[in-house]
Write a structure and sequence with these properties.
Elements lengths: L43 H12 L7 H6 L4 E3 L7 H6 L13 H12 L8 H26 L21 H16 L19 H14 L3 H11 L14 H4 L12 H16 L11 E5 L10 H5 L10 E3 L1 H5 L15 H9 L14 H6 E2 L29 E2 L5 H5 L8 E5 H16 L3 H13 L13 H15 L6 H7 L3 H4 L3 E2 L5 E3 L14 H6 L12
Antiparallel strand pairs: 1-3, 2-6, 4-5, 7-8
Helix pairs in contact: 1-4, 1-5, 4-5, 5-6, 5-7, 6-7, 7-8, 7-16, 8-16, 16-17, 16-18
Family: Belongs to the SusD family.
Pfam family, one: SusD-like_3
InterPro entries: SusD-like_N, SusD_RagB_dom, TPR-like_helical_dom_sf
Length: 552
């Protein structure tokens, strides 16, 4: 199965009261493009399709905009998402930053009605319910991350009873984690394949990994350690390739990396390829994937190739890397941080075509080369002899001077069709980093913390952490935080990271391009730790919903 989705999109799940008449008149027959209480919930396939309608609400390519709302990336088109306003600090009570309960309503509708079909195997129905409960917990976790207190709704609301006050965040988080704990005891570790056991459905690992993420975001260190530790026993492993594809081998990195010998070059190249290829369609469902949004070939494509590539090769440059993200990639040789070039000096070297400009991009973390398109960087997989060149001011070009290559699938690009690779939402590397952060905050570094970090780093060809230099909690904390940034770039985790660490006021600053001219003016106000409830929703509630502090 390539896609967990629904043939039926149960609009509003469902229009209560839209039951048709029992008359036999032709004009009275139920419309073929709608479903009703009278025609649904009759057989096991109806239950199956209703589950798929909830899966259809999983996040997709829009996760890149979560990074666009942070210091990692610039989202230049305000009509594509709220990320432009969030990052710029131009949020108002009219900004809709994702206040929606459609997905939760679908889940509640399923849970309220699935028992009507008595011909479904009882164990299968229980599993279906666990899958939907997980999805509802995921949807709620995304809401609480943005808005804090949100209405906790677990039943189907009657018409006229839609206005529900906000529930304290702590109660919603407890509901989320209790649900995830409960369903983790029901869900299988894997699926055999074939309807209704398609690979890609929610697993025990997904429930525990999301639980670990939620506890981490709430700084509940012991609980995050416990949940991530459980995932680490389930057989997941970091994805690695054993050899380069012929097209990738054409990329000449000798200009960018000083290799000690052939083995050193092989380590670098396989680290780069392992990291970038885990997101490509050919490697869907690899050993690192815990949860992904499944796509149908060309029928339910994502738009990552379009959103991320530069206009010179058909992209829109919708979300592009900041200089601050570029600066975060350390040295391939030492594993240590790299001192960035002075912005004025970088601009002068760039404008005068000084060869010294290229020095900043040499001997960096292999994930840098797998993630960032920088001036003259090679990428034969996307086009023969391709080298990135920034065209400032041209249509659909980056405003920062960089583009992303991470999450782009070059093989699909060459087919001249939309990207239809699955979108990974949770992977094992995140679990290892969750464990490392929570364990370090709980009790300081120990061998298990270093081992988790080293596994992530060495997969990409980087050196292990220096256990002598980073023997203390505070010093290792900075390593862990930077590791999360570079490993999980563009995967939507930076948004909560900078809020959990309370560093948003320091990092959400105006960004410049490689010419040291302004790409986006940014301001920060502490009210931005939470997004505004849309004022129209407050007004419609007649005072039942309250606004977050600082928004008028």
């Amino acid at each position: 199965m390539k896609k967990i989705t629904s043939i039926y999109i149960l609009t509003g799940l469902l229009t209560i009261g839209a039951v048709t008449s029992c008359k036999k008149d032709f004009l009275e027959r139920p419309p073929l493009d709608q479903l009703s209480e009278a025609t649904f919930w009759k057989n096991p396939n109806d239950v199956y399709q209703a589950v798929m309608a909830v899966y259809n609400q999983l996040p997709g390519d829009g996760i890149i905009y979560d990074d666009g709302a942070t210091d990692n990336a610039h989202a230049q088109y305000p009509w594509e998402s709220s990320a432009t306003d969030v990052s710029a600090g131009t949020l108002t009570s009219t900004t809709d930053a994702g206040w929606s309960f459609i997905d939760i309503r679908r889940a509640n509708y399923f849970l309220a009605n699935a028992d009507k079909v008595t011909t479904v195997d009882a164990a299968l129905l229980e599993r279906y319910k666990a899958e939907v409960r997980f999805l509802r917990a995921l949807f709620y976790s995304r809401l609480t991350n943005k808005f804090g207190d949100v209405p906790l709704i677990t039943t189907v609301l009657a018409l006229g009873a839609e206005n529900v006050p906000r529930t304290p965040k702590a109660e919603v988080v407890k509901f989320i984690t209790d649900e995830l704990d409960a369903v983790s005891k029901i869900l299988p570790q894997s699926y055999a394949g074939g309807k209704p056991n398609e690979k890609g459905r929610i697993t025990k690992g997904a429930a525990l990994a999301l639980k670990a993420r939620v506890h981490l975001n709430e700084s509940q260190w012991q609980l995050a350690v416990d949940a991530s530790s459980q995932v680490m026993t389930l057989g997941y492993s970091l994805f690695k390739v054993g050899a380069e594809e012929a097209i990738d081998a054409k990329d000449d990195y000798s200009k960018w990396v000083t290799f000690a010998n052939a083995n050193d070059e092989k380590k670098f190249r396989l680290g780069l390829r392992s990291y970038e290829a885990l997101f490509h369609k050919v490697n869907e469902g690899n050993t690192e994937v815990i949860l992904d949004r499944q796509q149908i070939d060309q029928k339910d494509a994502n738009f990552l190739n379009t959103y991320l590539l530069p206009g010179t090769i058909g992209g829109w440059s919708s979300v592009t890397p900041t200089q601050e993200l570029v600066n975060s990639y350390g040295s391939y040789k030492t594993g240590e941080a790299v001192i960035p070039t002075d912005p004025a000096q970088r601009a002068d070297w760039y404008k005068t075509n000084n060869p010294a400009f290229a020095n900043e991009y040499k001997n960096r973390d292999p994930r840098f080369y797998a993630t960032i398109l920088f001036e003259n960087s090679p990428w034969n997989a996307v086009e023969d002899d391709y080298k990135f060149n920034w065209v400032q001011g041209a249509s659909n070009m980056s405003l920062t001077g960089y583009n992303f290559r991470k999450l782009v699938d070059p093989a699909i690009y060459r087919q001249q069709v939309d990207n239809h690779a699955n979108i990974i939402l949770i992977r094992y590397a995140e679990v290892l980093l969750t464990y490392a952060e929570a364990k370090n905050e709980l009790s300081g570094p120990d061998a298990t913390v270093y081992d988790a970090l080293d596994a992530v780093r060495t997969r990409s060809g980087m050196p292990v952490v220096d256990r002598v230099k980073y023997a203390g909690k505070d010093a290792l904390r900075e390593v862990i935080r930077n590791e999360r940034r570079v490993e999980l770039a563009l995967e939507g985790q930076r948004y909560m990271d900078i809020r959990r660490w309370k560093i948003a006021p320091q990092v959400m600053k105006t960004i410049n391009n490689i010419k040291n001219t302004q790409a986006q003016e940014r301001t920060w106000n502490d009210r931005f730790y939470l997004m505004p409830v849309p004022q129209k929703e407050v007004d419609l509630s007649k005072g039942v919903l309250t606004q977050n502090a600082g928004y008028n």
